[in-house]
Design a protein that fits this description.
Elements: H1 2-16, H2 20-26, H3 28-32, E1 40-42, H4 46-52, E2 67-70, E3 72-75, E4 78-81, E5 91-96, E6 99-111, E7 118-126, H5 129-132, E8 145-158, E9 162-171, E10 182-187, H6 189-194
Antiparallel strand pairs: 1-2, 2-6, 3-4, 5-6, 5-9, 6-7, 7-8, 8-10, 9-10
Length: 208
């Protein structure tokens, strides 16, 4: 069963990363039953406008900030969704200002005329040094797991800064002896690689 799943993953990954002309010749879009992301106009709040200034410093005024949004985006053979569309595909591991973080995708947006999206993510706050000592995963780095506070701040993240998905369990206050609500997260990057899906490949994605 695992062997069949691995072979299927290799085949699907091959189809998704084939050059556009060759993919059209072999009917990859029919085999994968793929469709273009559906984009619609998006009116950002003041919080979102301030957040995306990090990624789009050239857009200095509200008048210039004409945005659109979609609920799902495919990249490197994976589907990334906002939380409202699919909870499981919205938990991600990413890098921000040189730090490895985890969070939940709230919006997938882009400026009109751009092809690459920006992910607006509620990034979880890391444990302080005292609470980190209570994490059951502290001495088990091979599990690729961590515990974070269930507190988040909005961050704008580029596609290339997202590592992959996470599995998440929300914990009540007092779990693991930590007196705040927390989230236990496990990175799925190594599991995806085992199944034959490379994390370093980039897929051609139609945008219109």
């Amino acid at each position: 069963m695992i062997k069949k799943h691995t072979l299927k993953s290799f085949f699907v990954n091959f189809l998704r990363n084939a050059p556009p002309d060759y993919a059209e010749d072999i009917g990859a879009n029919i085999i994968l039953a793929t469709s273009s992301p559906k984009w619609k106009d998006f009116l950002p709040s003041s919080e979102i406008r301030a957040c995306i200034q990090e990624s789009l410093p050239e857009m200095s005024s509200e008048a210039e900030m004409k945005l659109e949004t979609t609920s799902i985006w495919r990249h490197a053979g994976k589907s990334f969704s906002n939380f409202a569309e699919h909870r499981g595909n919205s938990y991600v591991e990413f890098t921000h200002n040189g730090q490895s973080l985890t969070g939940v995708i709230q919006y997938i947006i882009r400026p009109h005329g751009h092809t690459a999206p920006i992910f607006l993510i509620h990034g979880f706050r890391e444990l302080n040094s005292t609470d980190s000592s209570h994490s059951p995963y502290q001495s088990l780095p091979h599990l690729k797991a961590r515990v974070v506070y269930n507190e988040a701040s909005l961050m704008s993240v580029r596609t290339q800064d997202i590592y992959g998905h996470c599995a998440a369990i929300h914990n009540r206050s007092g779990t693991f002896g930590i007196h705040k609500p927390t989230v236990s997260l496990v990175s799925l990057r190594s599991m995806l690689c085992f199944q034959g899906i490379s994390d370093i490949t980039s897929s051609y994605e139609p945008t219109s």
